Amino acid sequence: MHTIRLIYSSHAREGVGYRDFLAIMEKASETNSELKITGILCYGAGKFLQALEGERMVVNALYHHISVDERHAHCQLLSVEDIEVRDYAEWTMKVVDWSHAGSVDSRALLLDGSGMTHFDPDLMSAAQASRFLRGLAAAERELLE
Question: Which residues touch 105 (CB under 8 Å, ≥6 apart)?
Fold first, then answer.
């Protein structure tokens, strides 16, 4: 069995907001638990950046489902890599709202992770997206301590 990490970005279609995706993510969290998928999703400015981890065939099938979902537009596959260790093992789906992230710490996290001053996954390289999501996960873990 091959475990992979897949990172993609997408745009929310017109009329779909963060509250809609919280409901979807609650359902996805249950499904992901059954499928042994872990990950993190960041939402901001009408765009999503998500990392999914799990067995290759299962993650690929989920990404295909997401890419044709009518709530998503402009899906871009940023990276797929074989992994030995999951970065987001404690979360079947961690959702982070970046819509109002204006603090100095948030801006520093974004700048450090992606080199950008505003959240725009369309402009991130695979390495920037991965670095940003790892930093975001670390910041979320610190909030729980």
Answer: 139
Instruction: Measure the CA–CA gap between 145 and 134, rounded to whole angstroms.
Output: 17
Q: What is the pLDDT of residue 61?
A: 96
Phi, psi dihedral angles at 61 (to 5 degrees): -65, -40
Per-chain mean pLDDT for the chain:
87
Torsion of CA 119, 81, 63, 72, to 10 degrees: 20
- Residues whose CB falls within 8 Å of the CB of residue 138, separated by 6 or more in sequence, listed in order: none
Q: Please say whether the beta carbons of 132 and 124 come within 8 A.
A: yes
Helical (H) or strand (E) element with 66: helix 56-67
Bridging pattern class, strands 38-44 and 47-55: antiparallel
- pTM of the predicted protein model: 0.90
Measure the CA–CA gap between 74 and 17, rounded to whole angstroms: 16
Rg (CA), the chain: 14
Residue 131 has, within 13 A of its CA and on its CB side, a CA count of 14
